[in-house]
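User: Round two. Same drill as before: sequence, then structure, for each protein.

Assistant: Same drill it is. First protein:
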Amino acid sequence: MGKSEKGPAKTNAARLLDKAGIEYSLVPYEVDESNLAADHVAEELGEDINCVFKTLVLNGERSGHFVCVIPGNMEVDLKAAARVAGAKKADLIPMKELLPLTGYIRGGCSPIGMKKPFPTFFHSTINNFDRVYVSAGVRGLQFCISPADLIAYTGGTVADIATYLVNS
């Protein structure tokens, strides 16, 4: 079961993991509304950016919506993501569609507990870690969870779907 001691309030995503008997911890961090980037989250957590994953929602031509969970220092490779999702091409959904589609807002989108299940793809580096961080469904709160449990719970697929961000 989830470990929350007397910590942060449980999110719907946390309740779903509890119900499934999956172990995780809830890790709060200070939110900066002007900087919702994953590198800020990693810095606040005091963690390696490579193990702090962000959740992106894409729409594939012919395949419909799907989810990509990638390291915070990477960007989704639209061609590779489309290929693994069985789409001709794919694009990130417009920000205004995120909340109605998933129930989550930017900076608080979790791969767990979206309004409906979507095919979910995790970048292959997720298997390099014993524990990874993903949003717990609200800004300011992350799950620390085993990648194997996260992938199994979401029915996810591991693939090379991202490339490193180029510093400008």
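Second protein:
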Amino acid sequence: MRQRPLTLIQDDLVDYDQAMERMRELVGERQRDERPDTLWLLSHPQVFTIGRRTPMDHLPDPAKGIPVVETTRGGQLTYHGPGQLVGYLIVKLGEGEGIVDYVREVELRLVEALGKLGLPAERRDTPPGSELLTGVWTAETGRKIVSIGMRQSRGVTSHGFALNVNGDLEPWHWAVACGMPDVDMTSVQRELGRTSMDEVRAAVVTAFEAG
């Protein structure tokens, strides 16, 4: 894997709409070479986000009271909430490098981070005709622990990953996550029986060469 050091921004809980506005600013700065490649780590209040291809029957019951927001990233429905580590990646792709190449790198870096936490994980290739298996899965239990949805604009990536650390997993059961009705979403806490957000943040920062 190539060296790709990133500048780090860290926040705690940021409203999703406010984060999207700030992310657009960061992308514009990177496109104009006014900032280096950047990793922004944060969490969001409860929200479901959907892609342009998300079927209506995958959405949660409005009675659950969690807002649903359409986003510009790739992928299907995902959930964000406290106890989840979100990483937005504003990176200028190299010559001949596409967004799919970079998503694979992101998967492998997150596999590395989880391994350092004592949680073996893996990325998966998508069989022809199947829903995209983008993300990271636990090696031993086969559950999905990281959701990834990204896009590129004028050679710069945006959006990123959501790693379940120690938040409530129940909202994942209220909708069809990632376009896969049978997916079993998990967290570091569920798999290891212990965790801390600070520990997970530190492992992710190291895996992404961020500072």
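The longest strand covers residues 144-153.

User: Perfect.
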